[in-house]
């Protein structure tokens, strides 16, 4: 059967590519070997945020002294609720696929020639091929996954029950979110991070990382930084050796969750045969329009390299679909990131340290959340927003930690993408009382300094 577009991989990037291409009149098929929605919908973004939001409700209740009684999580019922959310989101996507007459084919795709895709013993021909096959966890020599008590993050989040002592290897985004979730469920949690700071991720300010570390430790999470580790045994307990700058310790747990190391999934796709170039790590090289080195092949999502995020995958899919459909579009300059820790984190652009290394002069403006009335009404006055601006007031980057950070950061990403200055934001009125008023405070102080 012949198609205008065949998308290999039905994750978020693949879905948005297929839908946008079909909206623009293309005949489209998606090939997915497992479940539509990929990692994000089935095992990562949607289930993790469902679980984290649930346990945050319990935390908020526990610190509200005007609420009587004890609130506990029924993990079985929470699991059913999580599955219901996944189904609802998936049904919404399925409805859209049906609306645009997109064929969904379940099976393992094989590509050995340009324009031809084998699946389930049949050959599909296509004018354009989109590779959206994602990435998967690496089983590293020092942390071999066994699917039982040494697992990847998404397996851990979907276990029917959790043991008491959990060790998380890696203090990045997944490590911090999982630590938030597990500790809120009264599990004993340890994070082991190789780098000398938590959240050693491009774009995340060191002060934000330290604020998150403080909050996690206050909740009882034990954090090892600047620590080289490896698994010694995993027959019953998981036993690590942890080498800190000052000592070597033995760390034991019932479950180890390995949040480091991923690789692109290109099984069954002969990239050389279809003249698609990759980088040294095997990720497909793409330009700002999601095109590969072969003009007949696009790549979106994790398989197309960093950042490995659903945010990027979603937008890259739209961009690919636009260009395939004849509408010129490019990836945004600024892609915000959101981390759903106990205190939310939102980041976009560069940090002060990164700007300094690049030789860019920037001024930092900071507002504490305790200065925002809405933060008090929500009983969450901790955290702050920092922005970095050049001499003209143009915003170069922003970091926020606190209630609503994952929403506020989108407004700042909008301002940066449109090259707005603080003077432009100062003209905008945000409703009161809302968390977004922190942007008003930032623009006001950036222009006039403290005025009260």
UniProtKB/TrEMBL annotation:
* Positions of the Pyridine nucleotide-disulphide oxidoreductase dimerisation domain: 335-441
FAD/NAD(P)-binding domain ranges (all copies): 3-317
Quote the SUPFAM superfamilies the UniProt record gives.
FAD/NAD(P)-binding domain (SSF51905), FAD/NAD-linked reductases, dimerisation (C-terminal) domain (SSF55424)
Alphabetic keyword roster: FAD, Flavoprotein, NAD, Oxidoreductase
Q: Which GO terms describe its molecular function?
A: dihydrolipoyl dehydrogenase (NADH) activity; flavin adenine dinucleotide binding
| PANTHER family for this protein | DIHYDROLIPOYL DEHYDROGENASE, MITOCHONDRIAL, DISULFIDE OXIDOREDUCTASE
Upper lineage is: Archaea, Thermoproteota, Thermoprotei, Sulfolobales, Sulfolobaceae
Q: Which Gene3D superfamilies match?
A: 3.30.390.30, FAD/NAD(P)-binding domain
Source organism (scientific name): Stygiolobus caldivivus
Q: Which cofactors are reported in the record for this sequence?
A: FAD
Task: Report the protein name in the record.
Answer: Dihydrolipoamide dehydrogenase
Give the family per the record: Belongs to the class-I pyridine nucleotide-disulfide oxidoreductase family.
């Amino acid at each position: 059967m012949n198609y205008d577009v065949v998308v290999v991989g039905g994750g978020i990037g693949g879905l948005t590519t297929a839908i946008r291409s079909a909206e623009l009149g293309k005949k489209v098929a998606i090939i997915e070997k497992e479940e539509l929605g990929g990692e994000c919908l089935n095992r990562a973004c949607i289930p993790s945020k469902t679980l984290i939001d649930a346990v945050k409700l319990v935390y908020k209740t526990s610190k509200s002294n005007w609420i009587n009684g004890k609130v506990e999580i029924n993990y079985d019922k929470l699991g059913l609720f999580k599955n219901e959310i996944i189904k609802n989101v998936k049904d919404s996507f399925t409805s859209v696929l049906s609306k645009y007459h997109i064929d969904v084919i379940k099976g393992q795709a094989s590509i050995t020639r340009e324009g031809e895709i084998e699946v389930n013993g049949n050959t599909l021909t296509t004018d354009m091929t989109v590779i959206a096959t994602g990435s998967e966890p690496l089983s590293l020599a020092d942390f071999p996954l066994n699917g039982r008590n040494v697992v990847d993050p998404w397996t851990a989040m979907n276990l029917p029950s959790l043991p008491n002592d959990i060790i998380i290897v890696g203090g990045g985004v997944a490590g911090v979110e999982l630590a938030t979730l597990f500790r809120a469920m009264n599990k004993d949690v340890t994070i082991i991070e190789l780098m000398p700071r938590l959240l050693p991720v491009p774009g995340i300010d060191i002060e934000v990382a330290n604020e998150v570390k403080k909050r996690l430790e206050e909740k009882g999470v034990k954090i090892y930084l600047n620590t080289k580790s490896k698994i010694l045994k995993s027959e019953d307990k998981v036993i690590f050796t942890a080498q800190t700058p000052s000592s070597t310790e033995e760390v034991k747990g019932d479950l180890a969750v390995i949040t480091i190391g991923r690789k692109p999934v290109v099984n069954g796709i002969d990239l050389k045969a279809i003249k698609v170039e990759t980088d040294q790590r095997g990720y497909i090289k793409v330009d700002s329009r999601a095109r590969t080195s072969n003009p007949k092949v696009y790549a979106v999502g994790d398989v197309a390299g960093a950042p490995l995020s659903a945010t990027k995958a979603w937008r890259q899919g739209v961009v690919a679909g636009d260009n395939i459909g004849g509408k010129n579009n490019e990836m945004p300059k600024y892609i915000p990131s959101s981390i759903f820790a106990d205190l939310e984190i939102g980041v976009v652009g560069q940090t002060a340290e990164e700007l300094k290394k690049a030789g860019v002069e920037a001024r930092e403006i900071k507002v504490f959340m305790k200065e925002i009335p809405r933060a008090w009404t929500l009983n969450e006055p901790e955290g702050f927003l920092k922005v970095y601006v050049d001499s003209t007031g143009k915003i170069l980057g922003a970091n926020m930690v606190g209630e609503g950070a994952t929403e506020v950061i989108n407004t700042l990403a909008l301002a940066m993408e449109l090259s707005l200055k603080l003077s432009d934001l100062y003209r905008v009125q945000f409703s009161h009382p809302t968390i977004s008023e922190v942007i008003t405070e930032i623009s006001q102080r950036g222009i006039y300094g403290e005025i009260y």
